[in-house]
Structures are given as C-alpha cells and as structure tokens.
Amino acid sequence: MEKTINITLKVWRQAGPNVKGKFETYKLDKVSTDSSFLEMMDILNEKLLSERKEPVVFDHDCREGICGMCSLYINGHPHGVDANTTTCQLHMRRFKDGDTITIEPWRSAGFPVIKDLMVDRSAFDKIIQAGGYVSVNTGGIPDANAIPIPKEDADEAMDAASCIGCGACVAACKNGSAMLFVAAKVSQLALLPQGRVEGARRAKAMVSKMDELGFGNCSNTGACEVECPKSVSISHIARLNREFLSAKIKD
Amino acid sequence: MWLIDSSIGRKLIMGITGVMLVVFLLFHSIMNFVAIINPEAYDAISAFLGANWYALIATMGLGLGFIVHIVYAFYLTVRNRIARGNDRYAVTSTPEGVSWASQNMLVLGIIILGFLALHLYQFWSKMQLVEVLHMAGVHTPEEDLLLATKGAHWVKHYFSQPVYAVLYIVWLVALWYHLTHGVWSSLQSLGLNNKTWYPRVKKISNVVATIIVLLFIAVPVFGLLEAGPLFSATSTYHSLPTL
Q1: Assigned domain for A109 exists
Q2: Contact criterion met (CB below 8 Å) for A73 and A229
Q3: Best to test chain A binding among B5, B7, B196 (most A CBs inside 10 Å)
Q4: What domain range is B134 assigned to?
Q5: A216, B194: Cβ pair inside 8 Å?
Q6: Do A175 and A201 have their domain in common?
C-alpha cells in the first residue's frame, strides 16, 4: 500500500551569487513516502513549472550515492538526518505527515551560492590541482604485486579514498574548514608507497591552497566526521597535521 | 611565516601553548592540594615560589603562554567566522558525538579568563607581586610583606567566605569543560593521534581534566565545609572585603 504525506517546504531561493537570498514556503500534497528526497524536489519543480514559476535549482547527478554531486542542508544536517548517506539516498519515508522541511544550500565562504541551493564547489578541484595526485612517468605497466603493501595500510588508504568530495564536511563545520576533505585526499596517497614519495610537497601545497581559498581553521569538533556520508574519520586530519608539520619543520 | 599564515601552523601554536598551560595546571593543582593536607608545607611552597629568579622566569613564560593562547583564540575565531560566510543557517543542530565544549571553547575561555582576573587580584597581587614590588624598591607595608609568603592564610581568608568558594567552583567547572576538549584537541592538532589512539586520547583527556579539576576544587569545597553552616548570615557576608 502506498502511503502519502503532506509537507511544507521552506526552500532557500537566491537569484545569483551577489543577490540577497530568502526563504520561500511551498506546500506539497500527497508525496509518496516511497519517493526519494530528490524525486520530491523534482515533484516540487514540476508543480512550480505548471504554475509558470521558476523551478528550484539544486545539484544532483548519479542519484546512487557515489558521485558527490548532491548537497542540500536539510533540517540542520548536510544530506539530511540519515547517517552515512547522501541526499539522493534519503527517502520521504523518513518524514511524517505535516512536517515542515527546511532546505538550505551549503553555507561557507569557500562555497559561494551560484543559484538557490546550488553552490560553487570548484574550490575542491583547485585544492586537488594543487597537489592531490601522483606524478607518473609513463612507461610499461608495472606488475600488480611488484610493490607489497600491508593490508592495514591498504584498508586505511581505501577508507580515505572513499571521500566523494561532496563538501558536507565544510557545510557541517562551524569554522567552515575543509580539513576532512584535504586530510582524506592527502591520506589516500600518503599511505601508499607510490604516493609517499611526494607526500611532503603535496601536504604543503594542498594546505596552502585550502587556506588561500578562504576555508577556516579546524578546531576538532568532529562534526565533519559525523555528517560525512562516507564516514571518513578525523584520524586522517591528525595524519594531515603530522605530514604538514613534519614537512615544514624539515624545511 | 607559516606559524601565522597557515591554518595548521596556527593550530600548532594553539596546541603547544595549550599543553604548556595544562602542565602548569597539573603542577598548580597538586600544589594546592597540599594546602588541605598541611598548611605549613603549603606556606613553604609559597615562599619557595615567591620572587626568586626561577619562579619569576617561569611566571613570565607562563604569562606569555597565556597571552599567545588567548590572542590566537580570538584571531582564529574571527577567521573562522569569516570562513563561515555571510549567511547563517536557519536551522542548526549539534550532531550526536559532537561535544558541547568543543563548539564553545571561546565562550568557556572567556569565562575562565574573567575568573582568572579575580584570582590574580586575590592571590597573585597579594603574594608574588608584593615581593616583586618590594624588591623593586616600592614601599610596602611590613604586614603585607609578611603575608606575601603565607599562601595558607589567603586560602583560608577567601574560602571561608562561601561567596568566593562558590565562584571558584563555577570557574573550575568551566575549566573542566574547556579541558575535556582542549587536551585531546591539542594532541590531534599536533598530529599525535590515529585510529587506534583516537578513543584512548579522548579518554586520557577526560581523565586529565577530571584529575586537575578535582584537585583544584577540593580546596574551596574544603573551605566551604570548614566555614561551618553553609550560607548562614553570620559566616557569610560580614567579612566581605571591599573590592
């Protein structure tokens, strides 16, 4: 049996980066609890279009929790209340009939609003460009087992690599800090022998780019880890601190 | 200079000064506890840590640590507020697992600083400062100088007044909250943490904070008990000095 609910939405509307935004309230009736949150947003936009109003702009792509494109700060939580999920994996069965749902964009100086709920996250790309890679001398393909890697290191590196770069850490942080993202990107390479070589240069370059782009200073509240849809641990932040400090002290 | 320009450098300064202050607090709290066990021994410690060259150097180092810690705290907070952007969230929530103290370190710090001013006025300015001024040639009454090394006298003097005992207890509770986040956070900022040690470091932080605060709090609590019937009109207000 399909169940439907009637909800009220408070959605942040902002025409452009330099325009003052405000909340608009919309009522949405008979939303199936089987629909996903983004499907509900699609229904809202269909309704707005049919009323010849401008639809709400929001980011989305794969809708299966791996691309990191969806965002939305829902009722005080990045990606909604569910733990370890992205917004696209949130379903309307998590809401009750008559609920008011407040939907805001990521709010951070590093992520300026483009329009409505869509923010510019290219700052993360710039941080990656600063050093989040391994310089490769192309040649023959190396043997798979030529470099032995301990299981624990491989696991830890994979945990760090699970970061999808959605920016929920920045959105959740009271300091607007991007440390969890940068820590994950530094850790995934620093833990492996191929990435280890450029470890010091990478940590310095990525942290300096992060600071330059206006992200805040980490004060270890741990909110990022709790809200991260991929549960990236803040122990990676300790590793980043270690990498950066030892690189600076060696200089 | 990367200690000022980089976010991790700034956190390193915060962490190092924080650890310095924690070491001082441990030392200070153990010393205070002596006041309960043996007032004469406490006076001996007070005399030992008067206006001697080693005590003065340590005091100056400590003062510097405090100032750097506080200046950086404000500097970091201002930068972090700017990083948060102009629009605030309409709905906010503290996610489970995020401690209240960790999100209110500046507020707790300001409370601690306020009481610290009272504390310096009540004890330091009557003890080490008097000796320093005397050595510098400033005229000091004989009786002030005599009391300058009598730590136990001042402890008894203030904590026999429940108002001050209670104020100090409030101060120490704020300190406890500040330390529960501060101790482990400083280690994390220094990079001394990993997945295995993460829960351990957090527990160590709570234990250290609790030991320090319990040792400290024992003194005003003991003062309250000694003062006899709590908040009775006779024992409370008649001896309030004019500040």
Answers
A1: no
A2: no
A3: B7
A4: 2-82+104-236
A5: no
A6: yes
How do A73-74 and A77-78 pair as beta strands? antiparallel
Task: Specify the number of domains making up chain B.
Answer: 1
Task: For residue B98, list chain A residues with Cβ-Cβ distance below 8 A.
Answer: 221-223, 226
Chain B residues in contact with A112 by the CB 8 A cut-off are: 85
Domain that holds residue A203: 122-136+144-250
- Between CA A251 and CA A217 the distance in angstroms is 23
Out of B88, B105, B198, the one facing A219 most closely (by C-beta) is B105
The interface residues of chain B toward chain A in range 176-235, judged by CB-CB distance below 8 A, are: 181, 184-185, 188-195, 198
Looking at A166-228, list the stretches that DSSP marks H as alpha helix, in order from N- to C-terminal side: 168-172, 179-190, 193-196, 199-212, 223-227
Residues of chain A in contact with residue B96, where contact means CB-CB under 8 angstroms, are 226
- Phi–psi pair at B239, nearest 5 degrees: -105, 15
In this structure, is residue B14 part of a structural domain?
yes
Name the closest residue on chain A to residue B187, using Cα atoms: A238
**How many domains does the structure of chain A reveal?**
2
SS3 A24: strand
Q: Are A180 and A234 within one domain?
A: yes
Instruction: Please list the pLDDT of chain A residue by residue as tens digits (251 residues).
Output: 679 999 999 999 999 999 999 999 999 999 999 999 999 999 999 999 999 999 999 999 999 999 999 999 999 999 999 999 999 999 999 999 999 999 999 999 999 999 999 999 999 999 999 999 998 777 788 787 888 999 999 999 999 999 999 999 999 999 999 999 999 999 999 999 989 999 999 999 999 999 999 999 999 999 999 999 999 999 999 999 999 999 999 98
CA atoms of A203 and B94, how far apart (whole Å):
30
Residue of A nearest to B8 (CA): A241
CB pair distance less than 8 Å for B7 and A211: yes
Q: Do residues A153 and A220 both lie within one domain? A: yes
